[in-house]
Amino acid sequence: MSSNWIFLSHQLNAATPTYGDRGGFKLDSASRIADGATSNSMLLVLPNHVGTHIDCPRHFFDDGHTVTDVPASQWVFVSPLVLDIPKGPAEIITAADVKKALERFTPDRVNRAEALLVRTGFEKLRGTRDYWEKNPGVGADLGTWLRENVPHVRLLGLDTLSVTSWQHRELGRVAHRSLMSPQAPGRPLILLEDASFQGVNRALVQLVLLPLRVEGADGAPCTALGQLEL
């Protein structure tokens, strides 16, 4: 039976890329039936910003909300839009890029969207050194523009490793703060990084995020599910 639900997140494994190529995912065996144990069990060691993951405002602001501050209903995003904004190594996603991409949709469709998912195409380089060392990032102007012009949007997602390009780290820090500041006008956004949008071949009805619920966490690995239109 075919399904209109797809994964928008990558599997975690030893090859999962990390920002700056540091602090990766580690998997070990805690017990094995093959060794005489009564059950199989795994030991997982991982940073909280690894693989497909979310950033909450606490990531850059001590007074920002955390993963466990978000009610269950707020992890469901209605009518997400996939914005095709092709970017090459170390290129920057600007407010002008997003504005132009949104013009391809009707005003009604834009006004219903609770999440914007930027598909740069850089996902095809996942597994190479360029994916973490030369990832596209977000410009300093995007957060302010989004919060002023599409205030109903609650999440920005990327098919790149981080909002911060490794080649433009200070710019990326400014971009993070602009997107997530609790004090700035408009709604602080949640960020979805290192997501997978290659399988989105038609409009999405909704996006569901299932982050690891660690109390007080500023971010967490998550499973992301997308429901495609039939």
Task: Describe the structure in your own words.
With 230 residues, the chain is of the alpha/beta class. Helix content is 17%, strand content 26%. It contains five helices and 13 strands. The protein has helices at residues 95-102, 107-112, 129-133, 142-149, 169-180; strands at residues 5-7, 26-31, 41-45, 53-55, 76-78, 81-84, 92-93, 115-119, 137-138, 155-158, 190-193, 204-211, 219-228. The strands form three sheets. Strands 1, 4, 5, 6, 8, 10, 11, 12 and 13 form a nine-stranded mixed beta sheet that branches. A two-stranded antiparallel ribbon has the order 2-3. The chain has a two-stranded parallel ribbon with strand order 7-9. Helix 4 (142-149) packs parallel to helix 5. It is globular. The mean pLDDT is 97.
Give me the secondary-structure topology.
Blueprint: E1 5-7, E2 26-31, E3 41-45, E4 53-55, E5 76-78, E6 81-84, E7 92-93, H1 95-102, H2 107-112, E8 115-119, H3 129-133, E9 137-138, H4 142-149, E10 155-158, H5 169-180, E11 190-193, E12 204-211, E13 219-228
Parallel strand pairs: 6-8, 7-9, 8-10, 10-11
Antiparallel strand pairs: 1-13, 2-3, 4-11, 4-13, 5-12, 12-13
Helix pairs in contact: 4-5
